[in-house]
Each structure stands twice: as structure tokens, then as C-alpha cells.
Write a structure and sequence with these properties.
Strand order of the largest sheet of chain A: 1-2
Structural class of chain A: mainly alpha
Largest interface: A-B, 38 and 39 residues
Radius of gyration of chain B: 24 Å
Order of helices and strands of chain B: HHHHHHHHHHHHHHH
Distance between the termini of chain B: 54 Å
Distance between the termini of chain A: 86 Å
Number of strands of chain A: 2
Largest sheet of chain B: none
Oligomer: heterodimer
Radius of gyration of chain A: 31 Å
Number of helices of chain A: 12
Helix content of chain A: 55-70%
Strand content of chain A: under 5%
Number of domains of chain B: 3
Number of strands of chain B: 0
Number of helices of chain B: 15
Strand content of chain B: under 5%
Helix content of chain B: over 70%
């Protein structure tokens, strides 16, 4: 092995005209992509008042429930609030479009016909395009011009298992695993530059490949806040949670006099 | 005062929401004159906003105008700057004009919480209490988690002697900040004003309990700060309940504790302990003793 490694010498021109350019181009494209994504991002959508009210209605009951077993408020007030919320959820006055009328269709709107949902999906797609297109171009550039180039020799020995990772595009059995091919150098950079981007552009930069590559454009749209949710169903479920919390309810003032007296050794 | 330390103080004020307007103005105008604000980077905009608010607070409208000018140039159409402009208008313009301005902002975006809150505060200042309560209730129905809003509502109700409604508003505030003894104390005092003595007693005891819970040994320590006020409340309620046990009623059906006499004793003792460690000045203690006796 040592003899075959020693018999291979790389032209310094490969270092100057292939290795460095690939690395530099990838870094610059990453930085550029970050700024393009920033430009493409549409401003966050303004929700109308009624929609916010609908969203926050659930939070109201969650806040009430959160402290139910050591509630800071006395029983009359707790039960009044709990009953009010429960009634409101049943009649649906917190729904964005007001209480449902009779037998109106209750199927959720198709996200593809709703322009608001479409916007969210489109922004996800745009980000994906900015992500994918430059990577494909760079990869095409490397395979077209530098197919089969050996670029660099790693300064440490590796086992044969790394051969497919480090010598992609070179089908030789005998070459030492320490030699890295051009295509493999591209992949190493692709996944390895995220740390550098984080240094250059800050924590939540858009150049970071690891986050965006894992998410498909449609999955990103699904998680967007604009996605339609059937609040009347959520409200029904929340009513049951409220009833459960009612059973757990205890006022923090129950027995507080005993706690204080015990601390002052009077009980 | 060096520039660096002035900047640092201002940043601390911003982080802790301290309203030390005079101090902010003195340090801020120093920085503004020296032109160091441009070296701050993105922090400089927050600094300008802080200085503008402080200047308005103190009445230095020209400085506020300078800041506002810079901010408008940098962020045209920013909702935050628009609110700042509104606050600037409140300082000099007629309330109707400002109200109109806020109405326009809300027409453009009905969910602009900051403009809505400003509008409520302007209506309150104009003395239109009913309209304020209406508007504020609607606001809180939409933005339930606004703690300041609930406290403000309680304050408005209290100022109209509507203590029961104030208690309802405060109970929401308590839900939102269950760990804050000041809210609990306000609840207790409002309950006392509403005439619900057992509820007030219980809540005063909750405040005491909150303050003592984490102390290693309460017996040796005199009560301090909030606890003193709470103990006064306990004493006040306990004394009246003991004096008129039959007429004590509770709108919230809170039971009078059985150990009411021990509570009364402990409250007396704690109050005396608080004033006993105060050196030669005996007059405070004498006043307290005569109150306790009376």
C-alpha cells in the first residue's frame, strides 16, 4: 500500500485550479443562497382579528387547566371561568366565522384552493428551488470538468469502508483510501460547510443544507401556521379536557391557614 | 460618565423594562450628540426607540422628534415606528386626532395589538370609562394573554367601585401570573374592599405563604416588604371577623378558618416582630400597639 501511495504524485495545478475553486465556489454559493432566500421570503402574513381570537381561545382554557391542581383563584371564580369557556366552546362563538349555522357543510377547505395556504406552499417551494438548483449546477460542473480527478490525500489512514465515500467516481480497486476524488470532495464540502456557514452567517442561516434537505416542500407547507385546522373539533376536545381539570381542581387557599400556622408552630 | 458604561446601563434598562426616563434621557442625549449610536449596529434602533419614549416621558419633544426622524428614515411603514409616532402625537395633539390616527392603523390591520392598546389608553384618559371598558374587554377577548390588560381592567373597575368585576379581572391576571405575589396581594385587597372578608383573609395568607415558603426558618426573621403589608391585611380581616362573626358574609362562599384566633395572634406577633428590631425609634411601634389594641 505504502509503495502505491508513494508512486502517486498530484500536480500542484490540481490543487490551485480544482481543489480550491470547488471549495471557494461552494462557500460563496452558500452565502449567496442565504441572501437570496432572505430576499424571497415574503413578510409574515397578518392574521385578521377573528382568526387570532380563534387561536387564542384554546390558550385560554389551557392556561386555566395548567394550574388547576394548585389553582391561584378561588372556586367560584374557577368554576365561572371554566363554565363560561365550556359553553363558549360548545356554541362556537370563538370560531372565526361565528357559530355554525344549522347544517352547513363542515368539511375543511381544500388547501389547494385556498390562496392563503397556497402562499405558504409556494414559499416552501421557492426556498427548495434556491436550495436545489445551485447544488445541481455545481454537481454538473464538477462531473463535466473534473470527472475522475483525484484532488487531495488525507493525512491519516482509513479503512476500506470509506472507499465508497471518498472515491466516488473512480472505479479502482487498488488505490489507497486516503485519496479523495473530486465528486467526493464536493459531498464532503456539501455536508461539512454548515459549521462554517454558522460562523459566517449566524445560527439560523438559510445556507445550512442539513435542515432544508431533509424537508420536502410539501412537508414544510404542512407545518406552516396558515394551514387550515378544524377548530370546532379542537374546541370539542378541549371541553373534555376542561371537565377533567374540573375534577382535579383545588384552590391553593385550601388549608393555607394551617400551613402558615404550622410554620409559626401554632397548630 | 464614559460612553461605554452609559450604553451598558441603557441596554440593562431595555432588558429589564426599567422606566428611568430622566436617566435614560441624560445618558441617551450624550450618546446621540457624540454620534456613537451609529456604531451600535442593530442595537442603535432599539436605543433610539428607548430614547424617544424617555424623552416624551420627560417632555423633551425635540429629542423625541430627532429619534423618530431617524427611525422613520430607516424603517418607513414599520408598525413599531407607527406606534411611536402615535405616542409622539399623544404628547401634543388633541385626543380626537390621535384617536383618529389609531383608528386608521386598526382599519389597516385589525389585529394590531399595540395600536389597540394605545387607543384604549387614550379613551381612558379622555374619561370615557364605559367605552374604555367595552374596548378593553373586546381586546382581552382577542388577546387573552395580555397581563397588563387584565390589570388595567381591574384598575378601571376598582376606580368605579365595581369590586366584584375587578376581582374577576384580577382572577384572570392571577391565572396568567400565578407566581406573582403582587397580583395576589392586589386580589386580596380588592376582595377586602368588596367586603368579602374570608376571601380576603385567605388570599392575604396565600401572599404570606408565598413569601415564607422558601425561607429556612421564619420564626427568627422579621417579615419584610410585601409580607408586612400582607400581615397587616391578615390582622385587619381577622380582627373584623372575630368582632362580628355572625354578620361576616362571603360572596364567594369562602369558609372562615376555624383557627381564626390563632391566625389573629400570629399576625399580631409578626407585626410586632417587624417593628421591634428597629433601633431606638419607638414611635412606630407605639402607633402599631395602639392600633392593635384599638
Amino acid at each position: 500500500m505504502a509503495s502505491s501511495a508513494a508512486s502517486l504524485y498530484l500536480d500542484p495545478q490540481i490543487r490551485d485550479w480544482v481543489l480550491f475553486p470547488i471549495t471557494l465556489v461552494m462557500i460563496l454559493v452558500g452565502v449567496l443562497r442565504h441572501y437570496v432566500v432572505l430576499l424571497l421570503q415574503s413578510p409574515p402574513k397578518q392574521l385578521p382579528k377573528a382568526a387570532i381570537r380563534e387561536q387564542k381561545a384554546l390558550a385560554r382554557s389551557q392556561i386555566l387547566r395548567a394550574t388547576a391542581s394548585f389553582s391561584p383563584i378561588p372556586p367560584t371564580y374557577y368554576h365561572a371561568i371554566s363554565k363560561h369557556l365550556s359553553d363558549a366552546f360548545e356554541s362556537g362563538i370563538y370560531l372565526k366565522d361565528g357559530p355554525p349555522q344549522g347544517d352547513a357543510p363542515t368539511t375543511p377547505a381544500n388547501p389547494l384552493t385556498d390562496p392563503a395556504a397556497m402562499d405558504g406552499m409556494m414559499s416552501g417551494m421557492k426556498t427548495q428551488m434556491v436550495m436545489m438548483v445551485p447544488q445541481m449546477v455545481i454537481m454538473g460542473w464538477i462531473t463535466f470538468f473534473f470527472q475522475g480527478f483525484v484532488l487531495i490525500k488525507l493525512p491519516f489512514p482509513l479503512t476500506l469502508g470509506f472507499k465508497s465515500m471518498l472515491q466516488r467516481g473512480i472505479e479502482t480497486q487498488d488505490m489507497d483510501v486516503r485519496w479523495v476524488s473530486s465528486l467526493s470532495w464536493y459531498f464532503l464540502n456539501f455536508f461539512g460547510l454548515n459549521g462554517l456557514y454558522r460562523l459566517l452567517l449566524g445560527g439560523d442561516n438559510a445556507a445550512d443544507a442539513s435542515q432544508t434537505m431533509t424537508a420536502s416542500p410539501f412537508a414544510a407547507a404542512g407545518a406552516a401556521p396558515g394551514q387550515p385546522q378544524d377548530y370546532s373539533k379542537l374546541f370539542k376536545a378541549e371541553r373534555e379536557h376542561l371537565e377533567l381539570a374540573e375534577g382535579q381542581y383545588a384552590w391553593i387557599g385550601d388549608g393555607v391557614e394551617d400551613r402558615v400556622l404550622r410554620r409559626h408552630r401554632r397548630a | 460618565m464614559s460612553l461605554a458604561s452609559a450604553l451598558e446601563t441603557l441596554a440593562t434598562y431595555r432588558a429589564s423594562n426599567t422606566r428611568a426616563s430622566q436617566d435614560v434621557l441624560e445618558k441617551g442625549s450624550l450618546i446621540l450628540k457624540s454620534g456613537a449610536a451609529s456604531n451600535l449596529g442593530d442595537d442603535s434602533w432599539a436605543f433610539l426607540e428607548q430614547l424617544a419614549l424617555a424623552a416624551l416621558d420627560v417632555g423633551q419633544i425635540d429629542i423625541a422628534d430627532q429619534c423618530l426622524q431617524k427611525l422613520t428614515e430607516k424603517f418607513p411603514g414599520s408598525p413599531r415606528v407607527e406606534i411611536l409616532r402615535g405616542i409622539r402625537m399623544e404628547a401634543t395633539e388633541a385626543p380626537q386626532t390621535v384617536l383618529h390616527y389609531y383608528n386608521e392603523l386598526l382599519d389597516a390591520n385589525s389585529a394590531n395589538a399595540a395600536a389597540w392598546k394605545r387607543r384604549i389608553s387614550v379613551t381612558r384618559r379622555m374619561g370615557r370609562v364605559e367605552k374604555t371598558i367595552d374596548d378593553l374587554s373586546q381586546f382581552l377577548d382577542t388577546f387573552y394573554t395580555d397581563l397588563e390588560g387584565w390589570l388595567e381592567l381591574a384598575d378601571i373597575y376598582s376606580s368605579c367601585n365595581q369590586y366584584t368585576s375587578a376581582l374577576q379581572a384580577l382572577s384572570h391576571a392571577l391565572l396568567l401570573a400565578p407566581q406573582n405575589p403582587f397580583t395576589a396581594l392586589q386580589f386580596a385587597e380588592t376582595a377586602y374592599s368588596a367586603g368579602d372578608l374570608p376571601l380576603a383573609l385567605k388570599t392575604f395568607l396565600i401572599v404570606v405563604d408565598m413569601g415564607e415558603k422558601d425561607l429556612p426558618s421564619v420564626q427568627d426573621l422579621p417579615p419584610t416588604g410585601l409580607s408586612v403589608r400582607a400581615w397587616y391585611g391578615v390582622k385587619l380581616c381577622a380582627r373584623q371577623i372575630i368582632a362580628h362573626p355572625s354578620t361576616t358574609s362571603s360572596a364567594s362562599n369562602t369558609a372562615v378558618p376555624k383557627s381564626i384566633r390563632q391566625i389573629d395572634e400570629v399576625a399580631t406577633e409578626r407585626l410586632l416582630v417587624h417593628y421591634s428590631g428597629r433601633g431606638n425609634d419607638r414611635s412606630e411601634k407605639r402607633v402599631l400597639q395602639s392600633w392593635l389594641a384599638g
